[in-house]
Amino acid sequence: MSRARRNINDRAAARPAGAAGLSTLADRIVACRRCNRLTSHCRDIGREKRAAYAADTYWARPVPGFGDPAARLVVVGLAPGAHGANRTGRVFTGDRSGEWLYRALHRAGFANQPTSTARDDGLVLDDAWVTVCVRCAPPDNKPTPVERDACLPFFADELALLDRARVLLCLGAFAWDGVLRTLATLDPERPRAPRPKFAHGAEATVGRYTLLGSYHPSQQNTFTGKLTEPMLDAVFARARILVGA
Q1: 117 φ/ψ angles, rounded to the nearest 5 degrees
Q2: Number of folded domains in the chain?
Q3: Which domain holds residue 83?
Q4: Any idea what the CATH number is for the domain that residue 96 is in?
Q5: What is the mean pLDDT of each run of 10 residues along the chain (245 residues)?
Q6: CA–CA distance, 134 with 116 (Å, rounded to integer)
């Protein structure tokens, strides 16, 4: 049996227990109504819709993470897109940011296909999990610090269930900050080292995790050329090296 096949089988063997816990967590996330502003905003978007999606039934609720429960790579974004994940119900699905992300995951060997359009589109992630710091689409894509802090415990619970995770790839400074805040709560006795700074291609070790930084694949970054596909591929190539074959 090849090494790659053994690794796949090993991860599959680890999957059922983690999957059960993550499924329960997903139910808790979807049922959350802690933040009135975000709850109302998601619901309002689902009623008003965008003209291109007028026939769609919007998810319009908090969005859980998605992927392989035995993942060693965890990709962390800011929040669901108003007409992306808030519409489709799957993180980074149905908008241009998701198109960039899942193409990169596919090129790096973490996804079975380069597209993510709906929850039933056949997309499967291998050794990767995709999530966000804030589970509801915020107005102007800007959650408040109070909303962020109310939501980060879900990410802490997620990391505890993703017990094989070793690399946390942060899409943007908000995700980088959210990950650092969460790791501080998970290990409060660990001596505080200087806080690593976010940058595209940044790399830092925090406890058992390696953090990688990437500019977020938002249109603001991709349309202006601040983030290119080769730049994103380079970060995923580094993640692939860090998690191993």
Answers
A1: -115, -25
A2: 1
A3: 3-243
A4: 3.40.470.10
A5: 37 57 97 98 97 97 97 98 98 98 98 97 98 98 96 97 97 98 86 87 96 97 98 98 87
A6: 20
